[in-house]
Automatic annotation (TrEMBL):
UniProt cross-references to Pfam families, sorted A to Z: Pilus_CpaD (PF09476)
Residues of the signal peptide: 1-26
Keyword Signal: yes
Protein name stated in the entry: Pilus assembly protein CpaD
Region (Disordered): 217-237
Biased composition (Polar residues): 218-237
Amino acid sequence: MLPHLSPLQGRLAALALLALPLSACMADKSVTGSTYPRDYRERHPIVLKDAPRSLDVFTAGAALDDRQRDDVRAFAAEYLRSGNGPITAQIPAGSPGAHRTFQAVRAALAEGGLPGTAIAVSSYQPADPVLASPIRLSYAGMRAQVASKCGLWPQDLGVTDVAFNIRNEPYWNLGCSMQNNVAAQVADPVDLVRGRSEGRPDTIRRAKVIESIRQGKDPSTQYRQDGQNRINSTVAN
């Protein structure tokens, strides 16, 4: 049997009952509430890291074909631009033509501007002698990478997390793949940190635009859509 409550006690009891759902919401927020930034660039920042870069050169006797020679030259140029430490050349053990191919690789690296002192030579044991065992060139270079890992879903996108759905916040994984694509496609990772200095201006075009403005003419270029554009290929000295 419930005891008799005064009007004041009844009102206090009613307020306590009303506060129970609110306390449950607060508990849900503290446990499952969003603790990550709303901006995808802050959730998945692009950072610069030293990461290994490698090139496999398959043994082809005492000379390299044009394709592999160009690959080695480009690898040397990339190393000179962003490499750290020496280039490591791992030669497969037990391969009769590997050392002759390596001499061609060393020559191609020199053609790309890389001195022979920058190459550290070692050997490795192929896992399967039947398969082709390449000469492995590698170095550590600066690369742009996303600091976080994609494919994580800390929040349930279904109906189980009602509080998260009501807040209408972006889910954690949103924007992660796009940031990875940007990091993979950037030509120079330093561009993500600071802009480049101003390049050489087109002085001829600049003088022409200024002269047109002085004469009260439209300095913009008028392009025709009928394919009858005429391009002056002569350049005044």
